[in-house]
Amino acid sequence: MNDHAVLMENVTRTYGKGATEVAALRQVSVAFPRGGFTAVMGPSGSGKSTLLQCASGLDRPDSGTVRVAGQDITRLGEKELAVLRRDRVGVIFQSFNLVASLTAWQNVILPSRLARRRPDPRRVREVLHRVGLAGREGHRPAQLSGGQQQRVAVARALLDRPEVLFADEPTGALDRRAGHEVLALLREAADAFGQTVVMVTHDPEAAALADRVLFLVDGRIADVLERPAAERIALRLGGLR
Ligand SMILES: Nc1ncnc2c1ncn2[C@@H]1O[C@H](COP(=O)(O)OP(=O)(O)OP(=O)(O)O)[C@@H](O)[C@H]1O
Hints:
InterPro entries: AAA+_ATPase, ABC_transporter-like_ATP-bd, ABC_transporter-like_CS, ABC_transpr_LolD-like, MacB-like_ATP-bd, P-loop_NTPase. This is ABC transporter ATP-binding protein. The protein is of the alpha/beta class. It has a single domain, classed as Rossmann fold, CATH 3.40.50.300. It has a 6-stranded mixed sheet with strand order 6-7-8-3-9-10, sandwiched between helices. It is globular, with a radius of gyration of 18 Å. The protein binds adenosine-5'-triphosphate. Adenosine-5'-triphosphate binds next to strand 2 and helix 1.
């Protein structure tokens, strides 16, 4: 067993062609240690979301390799990739991505239902309880606060106990307190459940909860800080712009 949940080697991702070509990632090599919590920061357009999408199998790099749980996902066909994403990876977005017509419970089990599985109701209850939504199972997104909606999305990502949780600005649409609750859940996923967390954020205070902060500039890793305080992150970030 290697101790990296995700290993990216020489990953390049270019969008567009000719005059409109943009190199979103340039030969990026990075390892995300098992059970670690990594924040990814950098100026707008530096490649953070692209890195997350390539690492999670939502996007394919043009070259380089991405190993998730030891498997090179760049070599997998669509079906195999879908299975790996389903079984090993959880994803959380800034905009929650919930279905408005479904209840919290139904949103949490939706990916399983689409994969023709029947999740154990005890597990669904447990995971909704863990994110603080006991008693809100029957509420639809419009009947929940932004923080509660994001916690539904976290519960959905946690349901199948994925080895890796990817979060793209998970607190971007939340106020401080709600954001902190979501971050605490991500921290707990790493500390109590040994899950690997990779989170893109613009917020130095959010990044300060991570074990390590990667800074991207123009598609390259410009710096890595271990367990930095928010002030140091903000300073480093200011120096990059
Ligand atoms: N689908 C796409 N088509 C064309 N260009 C794209 C596409 N997605 C991203 N890009 C470009 O790739 C670069 C990196 O984008 P990316 O979204 O990864 O940056 P980011 O660091 O996440 O930015 P932000 O903080 O603004 O969300 C940008 O220049 C962006 O315009």
